[in-house]
Amino acid sequence: MILLTEGNDPVRRWMSLPRVGTGALIGDECHGLWWCLGPRRFWRTRGKDTIITFTAIGGKVLEGEALHQAALRETKEETGVDAEVISSGETLRASLDGASREWLSMDFSPAPLMIHDNTETGYSVAAYRVSSRRTLFPHSEIPALVRFPFGREPVSPTPLASLLAEGAELVSKETVPAGALIAPFGTAQIWAILPSTDKRRLLEGTQ
């Protein structure tokens, strides 16, 4: 098995867009995964409603940086914790609408959990399973982190107050309107529509 370092990252051959990003998925099937809410400048309005997207912790990959290294750097920047990547036994390559899904078996480590192309942003993204024993808190421009009960991530815009009443957790460094609508974006969009069986298959395949 190949151990990845800077400059020999074969994940890129599965990515078709010119810009490359990375994501970090922290959590498990018992408690759900942590997602970050988009910075306030990305909040938008629809009539009287405020819509806030949630997506994976992460961001763009810097020049000369391996994708999994970028995932760890972004985790540190956005949550303040040092973490480690858990290599995935299987990688799901999927379209944003879930219509196209391909299960891949990588011959290198660490392998990402998911890969997808986002034509809306122009980025191809590799999302890694990341582990940390420390408590997460939103840093950088991230206003809050949110975690939903496993398998109950909202697929369409849903009032934050309703999600919290149904067991979601919010760790916030600034006020997030309880009446705001929370909607998935990017990696979270794919995860939200995946069947629970596929989610478990991915999480149980990490080692």
Question: What's the arrangement of secondary structure elements?
Answer:
Layout: E1 2-3, E2 19-28, E3 32-37, E4 44-46, E5 49-55, E6 57-60, H1 67-79, E7 84-86, E8 91-94, E9 101-104, E10 108-109, E11 114-118, E12 123-131, E13 144-147, E14 158-159, H2 160-165, E15 169-172, E16 181-184, H3 187-193, H4 196-204
Parallel strand pairs: 1-10, 2-12, 5-16, 8-11
Antiparallel strand pairs: 2-3, 2-6, 3-5, 3-13, 4-5, 7-12, 8-9, 11-12, 13-15, 14-16
Structure description:
This protein is an alpha+beta fold. The protein has one domain (14-204): Nucleoside Triphosphate Pyrophosphohydrolase (Alpha-Beta Complex). It is 17% helix and 35% strand. The chain has four helices and 16 strands. The protein has helices at 67-79, 160-165, 187-193, 196-204, and strands at 2-3, 19-28, 32-37, 44-46, 49-55, 57-60, 84-86, 91-94, 101-104, 108-109, 114-118, 123-131, 144-147, 158-159, 169-172, 181-184. Strands 2, 3, 4, 5, 6, 7, 8, 9, 11, 12, 13, 14, 15 and 16 form a 14-stranded mixed β-sheet that branches. A hairpin with a 2-residue loop joins strand 4 (44-46) and strand 5 (49-55). The longest helix has 13 residues, at 67-79. The protein starts with a strand and ends with a helix. The model has no long low-confidence stretch (mean pLDDT 92).
